[in-house]
Amino acid sequence: MTTDPPRTEERAGHQVLEGLNASQREAVSAPAGPTLVLAGAGSGKTRVITHRIGWRMLVHEAPADSILAVTFTNKAAREMRTRVEALASEVGGTRSLPWVSTFHAFGLSLLRRFGADIGLPAGFPVFGADESRALVRQVAKELLIDDDRLPLGRLVQLISRLRNAEAAGAAFRGPRDPRLADNVREAAGLYRRKLSEMKGVDFDDLLIRSLDLLDVSKAARAFVVRRVRHLLIDEYQDTSPTQHRLVLKLAPHRDVFAVGDDDQAIYSFRGADFRNILRFREDFPGARVQRLEENYRSTAAIVDAANAVIRRNRRRDGKTLRPLGEQGERASFRSFASETLEAQHIAVEIAGQGEGRGSAAVLLRTRAQTRAFEEAFAAHRVPHVVVGGLRFYERREVLDALACLRVAANPDDDSAFRRGVAAIPRGVGPKSLQRINERATVDKTSLLAAADRIVAERGLPARALGGLQAFVKGIAAVRRALPRGPETVVQSAIADTGLGPFFQENDRERFENLLSLRNAAREFERSNPDGTVDAFLDQVSLLSAEDLMPEEGADPGVPPVMVMTVHAAKGLEFDSVFLAGLWEGLFPHAFSLESDIQLEEERRLFYVGMTRARKRLQLSAAPGGAPYLRSRGRVSRFLGEIPRDLLDAPRKETRTLPIATAPAAGPFRKGETVRHPKFGVGRVESVDSDGKRLSVLFRYHGRRRLVLEFAHLERV
Predict the structure, then answer these.
(1) pLDDT tens digits, 313-370
(2) What is the mean pLDDT of residues 474-503?
(3) To pair with 225 at 20 to 30 A between CA atoms, which of 135, 271, 310, 617?
(4) pLDDT at site 5
């Protein structure tokens, strides 16, 4: 008796599903219709979405040109396209490939095809970031917007945020000062008009104008209905409200296959809204939800610890990673007296592992923390790469502060004077600098001395004179501090020259970098009690020029240690992960402590950091090492959320670990005096009926709305 050979589609189906686990096969082969795949860390989500495309093309024989797959980066789009091509070739299917694109590239394609329906000419220009910034600069100049109160970079960001909020029908969260908010709205309106006059679009417009197009153009809508019969979306938790609205317009056939992980939603600062993935079933009634919970990356010990942390979040769909690897060693924890000692310990440990250590990464909450690790790795000759930004001593604000330091230590350093006076908006423009140059040439003196004389003679217009006078006065203050040691002098260079106050108000990350520079001076003083400011500057110059360069003759078989923020590490994995700087106020960041929504995102970020590790996870903190934190001396609450039997720590270290936060036993009463770890002493003004939230009027921080569970209040 003979059996019939399997049909072509059955054979293709077996080949497409080959090598997938049961959950992956179930997701890939799900029937047509809306499907949400909640893919945990290390569960093979990219493989699932590419095999789903293959299933559609090779089993259901959907035309390649009826499939659209969207993701967020060109790199991810290229990887997805390559995988689909390899799968199709392996199965022996079609040579045609689906439309794999980023959201913005799809929007541009739509506008190129149908832009005339909303008044865009053929060949309309697309303005890049630099061109958009230049246009905003022109707008700010025309509207006389004060650059001191609303710097250009901040204005660019706020205009973008406002335009996207309007396009998505969402609330705009702008400056609290109503006058600045009005400035932003007026600037956004003029910016839009100028773009329209030039018949061009910017990066935001690629989505915003695409939405406009689909609202008004029958031809564009018909194209979408015909061309997008099967829609697949990667990293759905990272979609913005604008992208979410676009997804809804691209899904008339309701065959939507979205893959993402609500536990890895960490990009709200880029405009992402994690609620999009949580309301998928509301947007697409009857949607299936598939969970990928098998973790192929990390050891069981690491997965169990990560699960314990993330399950404390309330705003999540719910899943539990199941490790498929060996048990492995427990995550370890150590605390140190300073961030310098923390970095040195990690450098020594990595250096001691030798050639067989495999890949390693130091993951940090902010870029300001890299300085200590750059110096420690340089001292111990550990090859390393700082990912996602400039090295610490190459950053603009650090160079600005060092320039102020140099001109104070050496008044004849004209190059340092030029950089220092131009570091922040002071009203001292090219014409004023030319006059200072001319005076220095005539008097045969330094630029600083010439500026001092011009100030004394009131030889500039009022605004420029005021800015120059403040700078000269600040440098004089730094000079007076010179005999007192490097830390005091660096503090003066930050505070008295205006750099610190400016960045504290306008760019918190740059401000933290300045305070990290002050910390470097403090550590230099501790190591060199007789060290001078000149010696500190010499050390910085050597670090910048030589010691921080990649080590010559390093073994090419040993990968360099990657130093990066946790945000930059998403999607990556390493044999060893050192998650450092785990103290309250930094991780979780101080800015998240007022909101339980923000605090949950911080917990997701911590979870992402933990799940980058394949074999070894070392957690560390230096509670006394961060000069810019108000809540010093307390390690991160997230460490207390890891069960003690899953954390390897010396007995003395366990005493420093916090007890995991539990809901408060009962509400405070109106009128009670309380103390908050960040805001200090205040009086309870009101308590919600359920006892979970309350309003407190603090003595120095005004009225704050707090979630009782996370506020850490105590009665006074």
Answers:
(1) 988 887 888 988 899 999 999 989 888 899 999 999 998 887 667 889 999 998 888 8
(2) 90
(3) 271
(4) 47
| Residue tagged active-site, from 202, 204, 205, 234 | 234
Q: Is 612 a catalytic residue?
A: yes
Active site residue 340: no
pTM of the model: 0.74
H or E element, residue 616: strand 613-621
Q: Active site residue: 202, 204, 205, 235, which one?
A: 235
pLDDT tens digit string along 676-685? 877 777 888 8
Cα dihedral 98, 99, 103, 107, rounded to 10, equals -160
Identify whether the C-beta of residue 614 lies closer than 8 Å to the C-beta of residue 299. yes
Mean pLDDT value of segment 410-417: 80
Q: Which of 612, 614, 615, 616 is catalytic?
A: 612
Q: Give pLDDT, residue 690.
A: 65
Q: Which of 643, 64, 633, 542 is nearest to 304 (CA)?
A: 643
CA distances from 136 to 162, 166, 181, 198, 557 (A): 14, 18, 16, 14, 48
* 652 in active site: no
Decide if pLDDT at 391 tops 90.
no
Short-list 268, 255, 232, CA closest to 77: 232
CA distance 34 to 258: 8
Tokens of 697: 């009027």
Non-local (6+) Cβ contacts of 541 within 8 A are: none
Q: Which residue has the tokens 């040195």?
A: 344
C-alpha 366/C-alpha 582 separation (Å) is: 11
Pairing of strands 714-715, 673-676: antiparallel
Question: Has 264 been annotated as catalytic?
Answer: yes
Phi first, then psi: what are they for 657, rounded to 5°?
-75, 135
Report the candidate in 455, 451, 429 with the shortest Cα–Cα distance to residue 440: 451
